[in-house]
Here is the input.
Amino acid sequence: MAKASPKRYLVIVESPTKASKIASYLGPGYVVESSRGHVRDLPTSASDIPAKYKAEKWARTGVNIDRDFEPLYVVPTEKKATIRSLKEKLKDADELLLATDGDREGEAIAWHLLQELKPSVPAKRMVFHEITPQAITEAVSNPRDLDADLVDAQETRRILDRLYGYEVSPVLWKKVMPRLSAGRVQSVATRLIVDRERERMRFTTAAYWDLTATLTAEGDTTEFPARLTEVAGRKIAQGRDFTADGVVAGNALVLDETTATGLAEQLKAGRFVTSSVEARPYTRRPYAPFRTTTLQQEAGRKLGFTAQRTMSVAQSLYEGGWITYMRTDSVTLSDQAIRAARSQVSDLYGPAYLPEKPRIYTSKVKNAQEAHEAIRPAGDVFRTPAQSGLSGDERKLYELIWMRTIASQMADAKGEQVSIQIAATTARPVTVEGTDATECRLTASGRTVTFPGFLKAYVESHDDPTEAGDDAQTRLPALSTGQNLDPVDVAAAGHETRPPARYTEPSLVAKLEELEIGRPSTYASIIRTITARDYVFKKGSALVPTWLAFAVTRLLEEQFPQLVDYAFTATMEEDLDEIARGDAKRLDILNTFYFGAGDSQGLHKLVNELGEIDPRVLSSFPIADSGITVRVGKYGTYVEDAEGRRANVPADLPPDELTADHARELLDTPVAQDREIGVAPDTGYPIVVKSGRFGPYVTEVLPEGAPKGVKPRTGSLFSSMQPETVTLDDALRLLSLPRTVGHDAEGVAITAQNGPYGPYLKKGTDSRPLPDEESIFTVTLEEAEAIYAAPKQRRRAAAAAPLRELGADSATGSPIVVKSGRFGPYVTDGTTNATLRKTDAPETITKERAEELLAEKRAKPPTTRSSSRTTKSKTTGRTTKKKA
Here is the structure.
């Protein structure tokens, strides 16, 4: 009897890296392939829409609202080869295992694969949360069916986002500026940043003084500080006692410089006696293991990583089998992880640091999926960072995750907090608000750590760098009530109240999570989007809104208040979670969002019943009774006074720094202003002269309805031209470049053009310099052929000296330098080059910002050339109707 052949499996994951790792754990009979991410999506351009749907009104959005919001899915051209390859592999398989990620996106990818591959063999979901031999073996042995609820939740989110973006964005194009975008979560995140800047702009700074005494006890030379808290029975005002208007709340006493220095002088010769000493023990429990948002926050604070950089490195660690799945809102640890962590605590720190019972964590995040695990080192035995062999960013992030996980299973930290109240009498009375005062009260606070516990392994950072860490200690001498103290010094100090700090990436992530807006897995892409759209730029680590963001947010608040309401956006997130749990129907949620219900207006009505919108008023922001107005124009932001004078606003100037005085300075010394010089006769597009980072240039301004993919023609001004005097004819000549001079005997075109190093001829890959810029328009074919007939002069230019040296890269150890290149200034570590953004200046860029740019460049996949063979047809493929 013939022996039965072994069963053959086709396993499909998202990434090639993960495919290689998993294939190494599975034996013969398993073929592991990659889908390389999503294989289908809604159409993104008119060319994506199949011919039979092009005439449909709904085809633009790809969502047929009249048929229960049925989406039109298409396979992008670049994914068709992947689908064909997977179909070929499937022919030899007896079973299909869809091993995409275990979240909504992964479930949706699995469903789309199922719809496209249409397998005739059994198909199951293979789910795992870490890539280890044990986890993969267990996943293969316990496949499950596709979760239709997770697929519905992802599809509903995709449709909501598509309708929001495609319905609201055109309003921005018409009333603010072409090619802007609005998004269900990105617009709310932008509003948060704008609201914070508004708070800063409204803020009134207040001045106040306080004083600190440096004291010693009789018979003890230990010096300790004590802060003045009361004078004549009245509390001394601190920064927290002032409102945003600069007014002190309550009856707190605001000391001015004269009073504060007078008190300091009289207290130096005064008498100090302890009036009470209170000591109490304290206990600090460990922090929970990382979930996505806390990892992003801590990597930002401790390592200076952006959210995107954190997730990119975490993805690499996950696919390499080093950590568990990095998109999770759970803080739960599996039994095997707890055992591994406790074993390592005992080995590394000793039994005193190991609590009697394992610590069990449950998430406080609403709708957390406890079936997932926290982010931790993979496996049932944790590899220490030293054992890992990792380097650079991967080593740093792995060490952070490893330390946090180990610390979560360690003993509590214990210590003692001491508070000492001190009565003081001045040598002579001091006049305070018209009254003589002699009696003062001071407070000294101390904290000691008697047993570090988990703090031995990990101390969490804070968004405010001035805030003391959990391991900080302030030691006080042993004191008793009624004990005399000697003043070593008494010093007065002046302070000013500070406006609320701008959001950083870590603090914005924390705020979005607090408001329950978006999902942890999307925060990195949200921040990347609002930065790329020029709604936000970075100043150091702070996220600063542009004036364009102010104009867009104002329009959304006035015309679509519900769509940028924090509570409404959070409710929508809850609705999606209910669909994922099977507690709500996709059609109910979509109908309510689009058509409205009760007092809630739907998107359709909001878009189609817009009130009056005056674009000029919308984009105008008066500066505090100065007669000067900030305006967001088609060609950029500028200030304008009552006399009609205008001046451009620097792109890197934060809105709260554009005061009336600053605006007047800009108006008195204006930079060459963007101006429209005419219309291109061949395209009808306006032509504008602008001042760019690399010099003045002319460019076309595309209208809101310009076809996707069309780019404006652009040309740098010749050295003989000035922005103030360049004419339309000059601009048209520049935009006509490169100029075809003719063809040589073999039919190869010779062109004349202008480049970063001056005018030149180009024939194939052979370039030759021209004597001057005007030669671009006057050189003849005969003259060009003569230039090419002459021997090519090869002069090796000396390497340009670095503009600045920033120090060693934390990731590679190589020195980072700022250089000037043909495309502008850039930073490099000798291997990776990253161009500076328009808000980065070579003179002021920091090492941390340079490392961020280099890390983002390294994280980008290498550019691949698309096949010359293209096809315009798209595949729909929504053949299975899921439940509504």
